[in-house]
TrEMBL record:
Alphabetical UniProt keywords: Glycosyltransferase, Lipid biosynthesis, Lipid metabolism, Steroid biosynthesis, Steroid metabolism, Sterol biosynthesis, Sterol metabolism, Transferase
Source organism (scientific name): Ananas comosus (Pineapple)
Source species taxonomy: Eukaryota, Viridiplantae, Streptophyta, Embryophyta, Tracheophyta
UniProt-recorded name of the protein: sterol 3beta-glucosyltransferase
Documented EC number(s): 2.4.1.173
Family indicated by similarity: Belongs to the glycosyltransferase 28 family.
Segments forming domain Erythromycin biosynthesis protein CIII-like C-terminal: 421-524
Region forming the signal peptide: none
Residue stretches making up the Glycosyltransferase family 28 N-terminal domain: 126-269
InterPro entries, sorted: EryCIII-like_C, Glycosyltransferase_28, GlycoTrans_28_N, UDP_glucos_trans
Lineage top rank: taxon: Eukaryota
SUPFAM superfamilies (alphabetical): UDP-Glycosyltransferase/glycogen phosphorylase (SSF53756)
Glycosyltransferase keyword on record: yes
């Protein structure tokens, strides 16, 4: 993007304003004076710095691969092990990629800065781009509903699987490509998104291509039901919607990231998808994960930029990597569980959990309500959207552990379809679907995969929690639950056994564990993550909002991109060591 002229837009005259936008007047936290300072050159490009002229970009493809090989090993569980001792010089140069400085304004500058949203915010057309499972989509529905209460027109673009879910909340819907069941199965088989064979690469390539090529229409196409025109004036996205920053750049609109797991580099803990033996390399682990992903998708993204967005291509190291450090970012978890790291600047907010509160209007089936009343509070066990390789084996383990501990159990069938081929005793109830915020208060404890939304619901309900992680950030949340003393050490799904699950249930039934869980629940219940998220979005809007271009060229047919195959075909032997 070097040499690209800045985007200049007239002020959004004539835009209606939200008269009651929740602004805390915390202007000292704002990292920029105006739109050009906040988003230099384009809406997403990082500040130029002499440090960006890295020697790494002068290397050949094979030399770049060797650099990554020396720093990284990919484990059998799909996580990345980062070891800086083998090549400290390269590690140091890579860290320069994250050297994005946004100095806070001083007091005098704050007084003179004409922030247009201190009393009212323009009513905007906002496109939300959300990739993932139901647990990923649900908090964005809560955020969309609240934004609409302030007069914004929100379109939530996500997988067609969730069309009814989004529309039932009164939110505009636009379909993104990709099937979350296929993507979740891929990630479960490969313990994440990094390790796979050629067949899996082809599968995931198709899914990601469908997602990325649907992002631009999601921001620009008319409503599919009414035909009403829509052109995004701001974008909210989660990081797995790869391509969001490029679409925002092409449209010339601000982008705000929200996510349920850490994605901003920090020195306080490693990337949830990384194993880092040295704490000094925690921050580097975020860049390494970003670079590996970018290496896999860069050819495809650059095709997308050239042919669809009419933007110049991006180099590997110098001018772009997957980090979101330069973008306003809100994390949807309670600071009671993970506080905001001290090295996350004013661009980053930890807003709290964003609950949709589906349970307030839920009417349970008579059979379920009666079963719950027939005995002591049960243990909930379910794995949500996670696929299971051997459902019968997992059911045998669950029933065996419940029998050994003398507990009743509610088993959520989920996408793994638990209980399909199993006989269950009378003290076990098979549950198809039920809002967790209604169900969990009726449970003594919960056992689940560690999805951010399910974890949040369990904590707010005061339930001791056992996390059985499959991949990704589920391990991270399992460790945080154990560190808080409200659950045992997480049990990976591959290590689940009757003995380990029974011991976990006994741990959770300890009165002291229950007391700690209730104390944490009171703290979480006092938070309003949705209000804080809306406030963060409004606070980080530039004072002069750009108007989007009138038209982008109609996208051509997408070309295939080069996925991780080129990297891993040559690098797998050292990764496997």
């Amino acid at each position: 993007m070097a040499g690209e002229a800045p985007h200049h837009f007239p002020p959004p005259t004539g835009l209606a304003h939200c008269k009651t936008a929740p602004v805390h007047s915390n202007l000292a936290s704002l990292p920029f004076k105006g739109f050009e300072n906040a988003l230099p050159r384009s809406c997403t490009e990082k500040k130029e710095s002499p440090k960006c002229d890295l020697k790494l970009d002068r290397l050949s493809e094979s030399e770049k691969k060797k650099i990554i090989e020396k720093l990284v090993k990919i484990q059998n569980d799909g996580t990345v092990e980062v070891d800086v001792t083998c090549n400290a010089h390269v590690a140091s140069e890579l860290l320069e990629l994250d050297a994005v400085d946004y100095a806070p304004l001083d007091a005098e500058e704050i007084k003179q800065t004409p922030f247009g949203y201190s009393k009212s915010v323009p009513r905007l057309k906002i496109a939300m781009l959300v990739v993932g499972t139901r647990g990923d989509v649900q908090p964005f529905i809560a955020l969309a509903k609240r934004l609409q209460e302030f007069g914004h027109h929100v379109r939530l673009a996500t997988h067609v699987n969730f069309h009814a879910f989004v529309k039932s909340a009164g939110i505009g819907f636009y379909p993104l490509g990709g099937d979350p069941r296929i993507m979740a199965a891929y990630m479960a088989r490969n313990k994440g998104f990094l390790l796979s064979g050629p067949a899996e690469i082809s599968l995931q390539r198709k899914q990601l291509k469908e997602v990325i090529y649907s992002l631009l229409p999601a921001c620009t196409e008319p409503d599919l039901d009414s035909g009403a025109p829509f052109r995004a004036q701001a974008i909210i996205a989660n990081p797995p919607a790869y391509g969001h920053a490029h679409v925002a750049e092409a449209l010339g609109v601000p982008l705000h990231i929200f996510f349920t797991m850490p994605w901003t580099p920090t020195n306080e803990f490693p990337h949830p998808l990384a194993r880092v033996p040295q704490s000094a390399a925690y921050r580097l682990s975020y860049l390494i994960v970003d670079l590996i992903v970018w290496w896999g998708i860069r050819g495809f993204i650059n095709e997308f930029r050239r042919k669809k967005l009419k933007l110049p291509p991006i180099a590997y190291f110098s001018t772009y990597h997957g980090s979101i450090s330069h973008l306003p970012t809100g994390y949807m978890w309670s600071p009671q569980l993970v506080q905001k790291p001290s090295d996350w600047g004013s661009l980053v907010d930890v807003v709290g959990y964003c609950f949709l509160n589906l349970g307030t209007k839920y009417q349970p089936p008579k059979e379920l309500a009666e079963w719950i009343q027939q005995g002591p509070k049960p243990i909930y066990i379910g794995f949500g959207s996670m696929p299971l390789e051997d459902e019968r084996k997992i059911m045998i383990i669950i029933i065996g552990a419940l029998k050994e501990t003398g507990q009743r159990g509610i088993i959520g069938r989920g996408w793994g379809d638990l209980g399909s081929f199993s006989e269950v005793p009378v003290d076990v109830y098979l549950l198809e679907d039920c809002p967790h915020d209604w169900l969990f208060p009726h449970c003594a404890a919960v056992v689940h995969h560690g999805g951010a939304g399910t974890t949040a619901a369990g904590l707010r309900s005061g339930c001791p929690t056992t996390i059985v992680p499959f991949f990704g950030d589920q391990y991270f949340w399992g460790e945080r639950i154990h560190a808080q003393g409200v659950g045992p050490i997480p049990i990976p799904i591959s290590e689940l056994s009757v003995e380990r699950l029974a011991n976990a249930i006994k741990y959770m039934l300890d009165p002291e564990v229950k007391s700690r869980a209730m104390e944490l629940a009171r703290e979480v219940q006092n938070e309003d993550g949705v209000a804080a998220a809306v406030d963060a979005f409004h606070r980080h809007l530039p004072p002069e909002l750009p108007l989007p271009p009138t038209m982008l060229d109609e996208p051509d047919n997408p070309n295939p991109f080069h996925w991780l195959l080129s990297l891993f075909e040559k690098c797998c032997p050292p990764f496997a060591s």
